[in-house]
Amino acid sequence: MTEDTGTPTDARTDGGTTGADDVTLDPWGSSTIADYRKLFEEFGIEAFDALLDAVPEPHYLMRRGVIFGQRDYRPVARAMREDDPFAVLSGFMPTGDPHIGHKLVFDEIIWHQEQGGDAYAVIADLEANAARGLSWAAIDEHTKNYLLSLLALGFDPEDGTLYRQSENRALQDLAFELGAEANLSELDAIYGFGGDTEVSHVQSVLTQMADILYPQLDAPKPTVIPVGPDQDPHIRLARDLAARTRFFGVTEAYASFATDDDERAILADAYETLIARDPDATVRCEDAARLLETDRQGHDAVRDRVITMLNEAGKEPLRPRVRFLDRNATDEAFEALVESIDGEKRVYDAHVDAFEMDHGAAETLARELELDHGGHGFQLPSSIYHRFMTGLTGGKMSSSEPASHISLLEPPESGKDKVLSATTGGRTTAEEQRELGGEPDDCPVYELYAYLLAGDDDALATEVYEECLGGDRLCGGCKQQAADLMEAFLDDHQDKRDEWADRLDELDIEQTSSRR
C-alpha cells in the first residue's frame, strides 16, 4: 500500500492514488487502502481539509493531510472554539509492542486533551482475549508497555481517564444495555460473523460500542474517536446505537404521515413551490399531489410513494413542522414532552408535531427531557481518520513483520538501522534522481518525516518534500538524516518511559487483570 501524505504546505487529503479495488474495511483484518477517495464515496467519510480552518491551532497531522477524513467533527471543533465540554477517546488492543504507527493515535488523544478535551485511553483487553485469543498474562505485559508510551508522549493521567475494559463494570453494564438495540443479523452484515463466530467476539463488539459512548455517561457532549479507516464499521454502528437509545428522535415533517429523507425532500420542494405561487394560501396534501403528478417525468418509485401518501391524506394541510418521534420514551417522559411544547402542536400515538419550534430548540428540549427522566441523551459520536503508515520495506506496516515497523521499545540503534535499510521513493541512480526528482509521495522515509520526525516543524517537512521532488535531495543523505532523528526520538522516548516506570502504581488503572 502507498500512502500519499502530500506536501505539508498543500496537504492532499483525497488519497492521491487511483485504480484500487473495492474497499473492504475489516477492524480485525489487514485492511489496506490504495485509494482513500473511495472511503468518501462508499462510506460517507468526509474530507478533513474542508474543516481545517475551523480547528483552533490544528495538529501537524491535520495540516499535512495525514488526518485525511472525518465524520461529523464539526461539533467537536465548535466546542474547542467556544471552550465548551468535549471528549476524545480511542483504544489500544494490547496484542504486541506499541510501534510508530500507534503513535499517531497517541498523539491525537494527547492533542485533544491539550485543547481542553476530556481524554480517555482504553486498553481493549476483552477484545484482545476474545478476538485474538491472547492470554491474560501476555495482555498484562502489553498493557504496561502501551501505558508507558502513552504517558511518555504526554498524556496527563491526572486530567484524563485510563481504563481496562475487563475492569470497568459501568462500561460492561452499558454494553449490555446497548445489546438490546442490536441483533445478530445486523452484526453479521457489518462484520461478516457466521455460525462459527464465538459469542465472546460478538460481546467484544458491544463492549467497543460502549467504549465509544462511555465519555458521555455522566453528561452528553461532543466526542471524537481518532481511528484508522479500518475501524469505521465500529463508528457507524456506534452512531446508530446512540440514536436508537434516545427517548426521542427529532426530524422535519410536512404532514401527519411518516416519511424518509428522500420522501421528505420531495414534500419540501412541493410545499415551497406552492407557497411561492400564493403565500397566503392554505396548501393541502391533494394540491401537492396534483403538482407532483403534473411535473412527473417518467417512473420514479420515491415520487410515486409520495403522491400516494398525499392523495390518501387528501385535504389535510401540508405545513412544515418539527416532529418528535417516540423511540424509547417512558410514558412519563412522553407526557412531559407534550406539556413542554409551547404553541400549536398535534399529538399522535407515536409522535408529536410542533409548529412553532425550530429544529435546534427541539433537539435541546428532547435531550433535556430525556436526561430528566433517566435517559443518557447521547450525542452521536464523531470520528477522525488517519492514513496507514507504509511499512519500511514497502506494503503494510505490520507488527508481525519486524522489518516493516519500528517498535517504540526497541534499541535506538536498531531503529536507526531500520531507517537506513528502508525502501525509498528514489530513482535507480543519483543521476536520474537529480534529473527527474524523487517520488516523496511513494516514499516510506518521507512519511517518517511527515508523520513523526519533523514534529511540529512544517518547514523541515516541506524542505524534505520539495528537495526530494526537485532532485536536490538524494536518498542516502535523506535516510541518514531521518535515521539520526529516529535514534534521537527513541532515545528520548525511552528515557521518558523509564521515568514513568516507577510511577505506574500511582495510576487509577489495574496493572494486573483479575481474570488471570
Structural notes for this entry:
By secondary structure, this protein is an alpha/beta fold. The chain folds into two domains: 1-13 and 40-246 and 376-516, Rossmann fold (3-Layer(aba) Sandwich); 249-372, no CATH class. The protein has 20 helices and eleven strands. Helix 6 (136-152) packs across helix 20 and helix 7 (169-179) crosses helix 9 (199-213). The longest helix is centred in the last third of the chain and has 27 residues, at 475-501. The two termini are 39 Å apart. 44% of the residues are buried.
Task: Domain count, please report it.
Answer: 2
Q: Largest sheet, described in full?
A: 7 strands, mixed
Mean pLDDT: 90
Into which percent range does the helicity of residues fall? Answer: 40-55%
Assigned CATH architecture of the largest domain: 3-Layer(aba) Sandwich
Strand order of the largest sheet: 1-2-11-6-3-4-5
What name does CATH use for the topology of the largest domain?
A: Rossmann fold
DSSP, total strands? 11
Radius of gyration: 27 Å
Shape: globular
SS-based class? alpha/beta
Write the layout of secondary structure elements.
Blueprint: H1 37-43, E1 46-47, H2 60-63, E2 67-71, H3 74-82, E3 87-92, H4 103-114, E4 118-123, H5 125-132, H6 136-152, E5 160-164, H7 169-179, H8 184-191, H9 199-213, E6 223-227, H10 232-245, E7 248-253, H11 261-277, H12 285-294, H13 301-313, E8 321-326, H14 331-340, E9 345-347, E10 351-354, H15 359-372, E11 382-386, H16 412-420, H17 430-436, H18 444-453, H19 458-470, H20 475-501
Parallel strand pairs: 3-4, 3-6, 4-5, 6-11
Antiparallel strand pairs: 1-2, 2-11, 7-8, 8-10, 9-10
